[in-house]
Write a structure and sequence with these properties.
Length: about 300
């Protein structure tokens, strides 16, 4: 008889690319994971993984079997969630990491309202532009910009159609003028910040359906994207940031969108969990709230 625990270890080993990582995640010895996979292989009478001293990969049979294993586990999880749908109010601790600007200026009031709705829930908030490692850092979930690049974690969409946008303050534009083309950005003060430990000075756009990258420069750089937005509000230069970050400033007239024959680069927003075990009732409800609000904001993008 196939054991559910063996199926779970098979799915996680496939996602993480190794028995050791799956064992670490499940707080088991690597030998226990290896034994579970061998037991599952005996039950199925197939070889799931091709093993060597340096690598581990799914066999053709393992690759075909994987979606069935995932489906079984998903059905069991859905059944469990259905049984506990009427559980008591949320409690415990929820630890969330988010980008600095988005966290402080957009998400924070939503987090506060969410906690007021669930007074027995404790929330710990970490706002930083450092990309949080959801496997090693002390967080339950992370709010993250960019496409999901790693199949080892679960990425739940919040604003899949969000884009970057060029903006500047009315004072800066009155003093320096509006750039009429992307080439003219080279003559302007562009405010730069660090992204993934490097200065984000290559701004990508979509022009005529093609992606175009423009090299920019400016007199001010910072390791905090929130500071860049504040400098733009002070009239210090042009910024290129997520529409979610600046939409309120544009709505109130503090920043002006620079429009031309270009679209901002796509920058989807997701809620990231290390694995489905972290998708607790608190995370589910928070995801529903954030997705509703973020999608509504993203829909107001000038090019939408």
């Amino acid at each position: 008889m196939i054991r559910i625990d063996d199926l779970q270890l098979f799915v996680r080993s496939a996602a993480l690319g190794g028995f050791s990582d799956a064992a670490r995640e499940a707080d088991l010895a690597p030998g226990q994971v290896s034994a579970a996979i061998k037991r599952l292989e005996r039950e199925l009478d197939i070889r799931l993984f091709a093993r060597s001293t340096r690598s581990l990969r799914l066999t053709a049979e393992g690759d075909r079997y994987l979606p069935y294993a995932q489906g079984v586990l998903a059905m069991l999880r859905d059944g469990q969630e259905q049984l506990h749908e009427e559980r008591s109010e949320l409690s415990g601790q929820l630890q969330i990491a988010a980008p600095s600007d988005l966290g402080r200026n957009v998400l924070l009031p939503w987090f506060a309202a969410f906690r007021r709705q669930h007074p027995k829930l404790t929330m710990r908030l970490f706002f930083s532009d450092r990309v949080t490692d959801v496997f090693r850092d002390p967080v339950d979930v992370a709010i993250r910009y960019g496409p999901a690049e790693d199949a080892s974690y679960v990425a739940l969409p919040l604003a899949p159609n969000n884009r970057r946008v060029l903006t500047a303050s009315p004072g800066y534009l009155q003093r320096r003028g509006h750039p009429s083309s992307l080439d003219e950005l080279a003559q302007h003060d562009c405010l730069l910040y660090l992204m993934r430990n490097r200065v984000y000075d290559k701004w990508a756009f979509v022009v005529g359906g093609q992606r175009r990258v423009v090299n920019v420069r400016g007199p001010l750089q910072t390791d905090d994207a929130d500071v860049v937005r504040r400098l733009a509000l002070e009239g210090e230069g042009i910024i290129y940031k997520s529409w979610l970050d600046v939409s309120e400033d544009v709505r109130t007239g503090r920043l002006v969108v620079l429009q031309g024959d270009w679209l901002g680069d796509p920058t989807p927003l997701s809620l990231v969990c290390p694995h489905r075990k972290q998708f607790s009732p608190a995370v589910q409800l928070l995801h529903q709230l954030l997705r509703q609000k973020c999608e509504a904001l993203a829909a107001t993008y000038p090019g939408a």
